[in-house]
Structure formats: C-alpha cells, structure tokens
Design goal:
It contains 27 helices and 17 strands. By secondary structure, it is α/β, with parallel strands linked by helices. The protein has three domains: 120 residues; 171 residues, no CATH class; 386 residues, Alkaline Phosphatase, subunit A (3-Layer(aba) Sandwich), CATH 3.40.720.10.
Length: 722
C-alpha cells in the first residue's frame, strides 16, 4: 500500500512538473461547475455565491499587488478587471431587461470572469525542458482543426436533420450548403489564427481543440444527457437539464483535467496516433452520413418548404363526406390532458351543446408516456401494448408500422375510403392507398387568409447547430447553452417567433377543415387526423390566438409548459374541432358521422386528476403518471343531446374495440369495453431509457404500472411486473 502511495505521489509530481497549471485548471472547472449547479438549483440564493466570488476576487487582487508588485502579472490582472467592467455594468444595470443575454447567464458570465481573477495569481509560466518541448507538425494541426469543426458544425447537425427532415422544412441540398458555409468560415479563421500565433501559442491552440474533440465524443456519445427529442425549440425531457445530479457537475473537472493531461501525452509521445486517428474519424463520419441518407425517406430529403399560398391539389378531394353512407372521424389530439375537457365543460356550458352527442370518458388510461410506444396498442389493441411486444424480434418502428397496417387494412377491407393527415412513425405504404395529407402544405394558405406574414426560413436550422454544441459540451455548460429554452442565441422575440410558427403549423390544417370539407363523397369515408396543437411548447394565448408579443402564461418563458398555457392550447383545439362539427351539422353529415377524439397521452405539468398511493408517491412515478390520463371523446352515429360524462374505465388500447362496436369495420373481436362492468387490469408504461431507442431496437426497458379500478383511486395503482 505504501509503495502504491509513493508511485501515485511520483506520478502526481511528474504531472505537475510537466503541467504546472493543471491544478489551476482543475480548480477553475470545479468552481465554475459548482456555480452553475448553484444557479440551476438555488437561483434565488445565487446572490450569496456572487458576493463570495467578488470578495475572493478582491482579496486575490490585493494579494497579487502585495506579492508581485508592479509586474507583468499584475498588469495582466489589471487588464482582466478592465475587460470585465462592461460585463459588471450590464449585470448591475440591465440584467433584468437585456434583449441579448438572460439574467442567469449574465450572472454566470460575471462569476466566470471573477473566477479568472481569483485563480490568475496561481497561474505560472510553463518552464519546458528540451524533453518536454512539443514540436507540432502543420499537417497534424490541419487534421485536428478539420476533424473537430466537421464533427461539430457539419456531421452532428446533418445527422440530427436526417432523423426527422420533415421537421426542419428544407431539403438536404439546401442544408448541406448552409452547413458547408458554417463549417468553412470557422475553419479558415482557425487556420489563420494558427499561422499568426507563436510556436507555444500554436501548440496550446491545437491542444485545446484536440481536448474539445475527445470531450465532445465523450459527452455526446458516452455521457449523453437523456433530454429526449426536440419539440419546436424545447426538449421533451428538459427536466434532465434542470435536475442534473451534482455528481455530473463534479465529474466535469476530472474529465477535463484528465483529458488535458492525456492530450499532452499524445502530443509528446503519440502524435502519430493523432495523425492516423483524425482522417479515420472523418472517414467514419462520412460513412455514417452516407448510411443515414440511404436509409432515410428520400422524398422528405428533397422537399423544400413551400412558399405557395395555394391549397394543395388534394385538399378538397381528400375531405369529401358521404351524405348517404357512413363517415368515421378519428382524431388524435397529441398530449391533451384528459381532465382538461372536464374543466372546459365546467367553465362554459356552451361546449356541451357544441359537442352534442359526445360521451366524455375521464377515466381513460394512456398506454405509454410517449407517442411512439402508444401507437401499436391504439391501432391494434391490447395485444400490441408495450409490455407485450418486448423481445418479439421487431423494432419499435416495425411494431408501429405493423399495427398501422392492421388498422388501415381493416378500413380498406370494409370498403371505406381513407384520408390520413399527418402520418407519424408509419408511411403511406401502411395505409392501403389512403389519401395522405401533410398539414404543413396548408400553412401558407392559412397565413395569407388570416393576415400572418411569412416570417422567413426555419429557425430549426439554427437549432441544429445549437443542438450539436449542446450535446458536445460538458455537463455544466448544458444549462448555460439551453438557457431555459432560449439556446443563448434566441431571445424573447426570436423565441416567440418560433412558438408562433409552431402553433400556426399545427393550427392551420384543422382550422381550414370546414372550408375544405364537402359532401361530395360517394363511398363510406374514414378520416384519420393526428394533430399536435395541444402539444408543448404551447403557443396559443388566452384569447385563442397564436402568441405575438407575450408568452402564453404571465409573459414568462419559464411557463411555456405551464398548466395554464397547456389549457389555452387544449381549449383552442376544442374550439376548432367544434367549428368543424358545426359545419357537419349545417351540411347534414353530423348524424351519419361517428367521431372519436383521443389523446395518445397527457402532458408533463402534473396537472391531471390522478392520485397515487403513498408507496408510489415519489418524483419519478409522479413524473411518469403526469401523462397517464388520456382524453377520450366518442360520438356514435345519430347520437344527440348534451355531452354525457361516463364513468367507464377505459384505455387507449380499447379504441379498436370501440370502433368495431360502432361501425361495420372489423377492428377487433373483443367485447365493447364500455359495456364491461367487472374490474380488469389496465397498464401504463414509461420508457426507462432514451425513448427514441424504442424505435431502433426490439427490447426496451419500461417502468410499467397496473391500474385495477379507477385511475383516480390511489389504491388502484401498483407496479406492474410481467
């Protein structure tokens, strides 16, 4: 043990001799990491951290003046103070109303500069021996710069784009052009900077870039934060950022200082490994890009966002109701909390008449926390619930496609002509020849009709770069970069613009349904519509309009996901649907139309009516079950009268059986669940890992809950074990 201690001491001694500022680097990252953690978890108390850091910076300056007198070190320290004064002035004068930087990040920038002042007196100039001198080959420098910038500014943004090209709204050709320009400019600047630096500066510059490459790979692939996918400008699981455990912050100082030592070792001893690894790394990235492009939907890659203000050619033919036959409308209202409709009814009785003939089922359990694992059961019933599909040899996406194929094949076989609006996770080939409508094709017409000007290109292209930087950054920088959905670069006006565009993209199609619908259909018709207007981030104000100059709830960015903002969006969705139903009544197709409105799951605001038993009343289960109450509204053929509220205990997997009971479509052989009186098990599942992996592989880790009884009874809830 003693020999081990001596060996460790010798290693530390040699390391500090070779890297005399390694302790300064460690302390700097440690202190700043703790400051960011303090800001993220105790924002209101951060003033005490600032007072402490300011006091230490003043003491450090006094110490430097006493020890070093008037010297180069004290002059540099004085210049740091001068450079910091503008930031201090902004902090004192404009931190609460600054259009360019958030209050939190002004404070963090202030303490960042004060940290430099505190630790600068400890900084010492490296006295290299001949053995320690690093001779840097220009070709190696070129490769390191190229590999890092290509990974950060080209590869990662392009891979993110390829995962959902339709969401970005531009073709791959246009995006590659943008990425190339964004990559080339910093590359040229970096090369110029490299050539004008002196020899030691060159080594330091390239070594920092090499550290950032390795660090980016570690934090984007090995230690990647499970934030979920982007929804407009916000992460679906942004709580992972704000609730990051302290240990992740503490790990950063060890990782970064360890990598600094490692890069020094590579430069001194193994530079040929770097020379070989960089081009191999670039080749792997190019191969991955090519593979992703081959596997992508080529049509989606080629489509540019339309600037045409006309309706698509299929607008009218895809929405023809039958006067003599039957019509079925199935609408998925994404993330609509089931209890919100009850509140809407209670606040205004007119909705009971506007939605005449409907039955409201508040005791409806969602199948899963996310849309993707909910779909198989919604389309194909209880045998396709998440807990029953694991280890079946099929990926989640294959399961969704199979279930969708079953669903739309049943519609086709029953002789119904189908229209599918906004297919998600499945393709036209699964719909048996249905007319496919893409809501984005209706945006420009809606904007022109309602006087909303086109606000330019997709801001999501810029978000691709920020997403790459976010995933590549150390843990403590993620809070800074995300900046409560502002992404540092998006201030209030830019964020409102993105919220408005997002709301309009989901509102335009369903708002135009009364205009594009007709009674020219001769066959039985089936309309499947997936709409995300009730989905976060919410961009509808209290008056039911897309946001303009203020955020939905109290002009506070932190309330983008608040229950109040969620209810504004939910109410707007119901208003728009009611307008369409009124058109049906006026055109005599309401009675021969069966309608189901279902939400795949609720929202994450902990604002449903579910109550948990004491043994499950912890933050993780509360977060899971926040989304467990689905909206379910059903109107049968010839149904009339005020909205009826039923106590039936249902689940999203009952949809095929309900449709089969109401129509002549053989969706399911199961008994109508609304007629079942005996208790039955209902299952709700939440993915216990990165949810998008569900789409890519067979086996997924779920946290599942059994409900036997009402979802509102705490005693009904228990952990499900297969």
């Amino acid at each position: 043990m003693y020999n081990l201690f001596l060996s460790a001491r010798n290693i530390c001694k040699k390391t500090t001799e070779r890297e005399p500022n390694i302790i300064v680097l460690f302390l700097f990252v440690l202190i700043f990491s703790l400051e960011v953690w303090w800001m993220a978890n105790r924002t209101t108390d951060f003033k005490y951290a600032m007072v402490l850091v300011l006091s230490l910076s003043i003491l450090s300056t006094i110490f430097s003046l006493l020890k070093f007198k008037i010297s180069k070190k004290t002059v540099i320290l004085f210049l740091i103070w001068i450079f910091s004064f503008p930031v201090f002035f902004i902090f004192l004068k404009y931190r609460n109303h600054n259009p360019f930087i958030s209050n939190e990040n002004i404070k963090l920038l202030t303490v960042f500069l004060l940290n430099i002042i505190i630790l600068y007196p400890l900084f010492s100039k490296n006295k290299e021996t001949n053995k320690d001198v690093i001779v840097l080959d220009k070709s190696v420098a070129f490769l390191i710069i190229f590999a890092f910038l290509f990974f950060l500014l080209f590869y990662q943004p392009l891979v993110y784009y390829l995962s959902a090209p339709a969401d970005i709204g531009i073709s791959i050709k246009s995006l590659v052009l943008i990425l190339s320009v964004v990559f080339i400019i910093p590359f040229i600047i970096s090369l110029i900077l490299f050539f004008i630096l002196h020899d030691r500066g060159k080594v330091l510059f390239i070594r920092i870039i090499l550290l950032m490459i390795i660090s980016a790979l570690i934090f984007s692939m090995i230690l990647r934060l499970n934030t979920g996918l982007l929804d407009a400008v916000t992460f679906k699981n942004e709580r992972a950022i704000f609730n990051m455990p302290l240990v992740k912050y503490l790990m950063d100082c060890f990782i970064i200082t360890g990598l600094w030592i490692f890069t020094g070792y590579l430069f001194r001893k193994k530079i040929n490994i770097v020379r070989f690894a960089c081009p191999v790394f670039v080749a792997i990235m190019l191969f991955t890009i090519g593979d992703r492009i081959i596997k992508s939907d080529h049509k989606a890659l080629m489509v540019e966002k339309s600037t045409d203000a006309k309706l698509p050619d299929s607008a009218y033919s895809s929405h023809e109701f039958s006067l003599e036959g039957k019509n079925v409308v199935f609408v998925i209202a994404d993330m609509f909390n089931g209890n919100y409709f009850g509140r809407i009814l209670k606040e205004d009785e007119k909705y009971s008449e506007m939605l005449s003939g409907f039955t409201y089922y508040p005791d409806c359990l969602a199948l899963a926390y996310m849309t993707a694992p909910s779909f198989p059961g919604i389309f194909a019933g209880h045998d396709y619930m998440s807990v029953k599909l694991n280890n079946n040899g099929k990926t989640g996406r294959e399961e969704i496609k199979e279930a969708a194929s079953i669903f739309f094949s049943n519609i086709y076989n029953a002789g119904y002509q189908a229209t599918v609006a906004n297919p998600m996770y499945f393709e036209a080939s699964e719909t048996r020849g249905a007319s496919i409508e893409f809501p984005n094709d209706y945006i420009n017409y809606w904007r022109n009709k309602h006087g909303y000007e086109d606000e330019g290109g997709s801001g999501k292209a810029a978000i691709l770069f920020m997403l790459s930087i976010f995933n590549s950054a150390p843990s403590h920088w993620k809070f800074i970069i995300y900046d409560k959905s502002s992404w540092i670069i998006l201030r209030k006006s830019a964020l409102l613009k993105q919220l408005r565009k997002n709301a309009i993209s989901h509102l335009s199609y369903i708002d135009l349904l009364p205009e594009i619908s007709s009674t020219n259909g001769r066959e039985n018709r089936f309309f499947y519509i997936h709409n995300e207007l009730p989905h976060s981030p919410y961009g509808i104000d209290s008056n039911g309009n897309p946001v303009k100059n203020e955020f939905p709830d109290n002009n506070d960015i932190a309330n983008l996901h608040s229950p109040r903002a969620a209810q504004y969006a939910a109410k707007k969705f119901i208003d728009v649907m009611a307008n369409w139903f009124n058109w049906m009544k006026e055109n005599n197709v309401y009675d021969n139309t069966m309608i189901i409105i279902l939400s795949d799951h609720g929202n994450s605001s902990n604002d449903n009516d579910i109550r948990l038993p004491e043994q499950l009343n912890n933050s993780r289960v509360i977060d899971d079950t926040s989304r467990a109450q689905s909206l379910l509204l059903v109107k049968g053929f010839d149904a009339s009268g005020p909205v009826n509220v039923s106590s039936a205990r249902l689940t999203s997997a009952d949809i095929p059986a309900i449709l089969a009971a109401e129509t002549d479509i053989l969706f399911s052989s199961e008994k109508d669940p609304r007629q079942i009186t005996e208790e039955r098990d209902r299952i709700f599942s939440s993915i216990n890992e990165i949810w998008s992996d569900f789409l890519k592989r067979d086996t997924t880790k779920f946290r599942s809950y059994r409900v036997r009884g009402s979802i509102f009874d705490p005693d009904s809830w228990s952990i499900y074990k297969d």
